[in-house]
């Protein structure tokens, strides 16, 4: 029994080290030690069910508790940075490491090794595939981006500029969202007109064309536009 326990724990440790090394080399939040501990801990909990003689039901119940506990741990490595969520892949790797540990604890060494191989392939080979997809031409991506076009003009020309903006958006055509006007800071004789629109990044040249055309309008002192972070097109 002692030899069997040591074999299961050693297998979980080895699988955890294999997965953890890849994460550590990429300097992830959960690296070598964390993932090895998760795999080994999951193995210990499941082995406890085996040693106490609770049968398959007891082992299954303990495994379900391990899954819940690792889910809570995985939440700790997920971070939000300037609206972007980071760490989901590391959290998923922790979850899979726990599954590998559970398999080792239950004595299923073949599936545990296979699971380890799948995790490593996902974090290495599929990582390169995803990078290749992300570097594909933006015209092939199913994205939408919000843009703001700002025009500073004389107060007397506000109505004309608003009409020119509206007509330009309709003729392009672009997904026109809003059109607002406000006093321009530093010059009470000028107005800042801002148009908000959404379009595919490949159509950005249309926005640039509109900005160039408006810059030649009489009474316009400046024209600028900016784009926010692209997001997937709603299905």
Automatic annotation (TrEMBL):
It is found in: Cell inner membrane; Cell membrane. Gene3D superfamilies: 3.30.70.260. The chain crosses the membrane at residues 6-22, 34-53, 59-79. It comes from Paraburkholderia ginsengiterrae. Residues 9-130 form the MgtC/SapB/SrpB/YhiD N-terminal domain. Pfam families: MgtC, MgtC_SapB_C. Virulence factor required for growth in low Mg(2+) medium and for intramacrophage survival. May be involved in regulating membrane potential by activating Na(+)/K(+)-ATPase. This is Protein MgtC. It is a multi-pass membrane protein. GO terms for cellular component: plasma membrane. Belongs to the MgtC/SapB family. One of its GO terms (molecular function) is methyltransferase activity. Keywords: Cell inner membrane, Cell membrane, Membrane, Methyltransferase, Transferase, Transmembrane, Transmembrane helix. Its main location: membrane. Residues 147-225 form the MgtC-like C-terminal domain. Residues 208-235 are annotated as: Disordered. It comes from the Bacteria. GO terms for biological process: methylation.
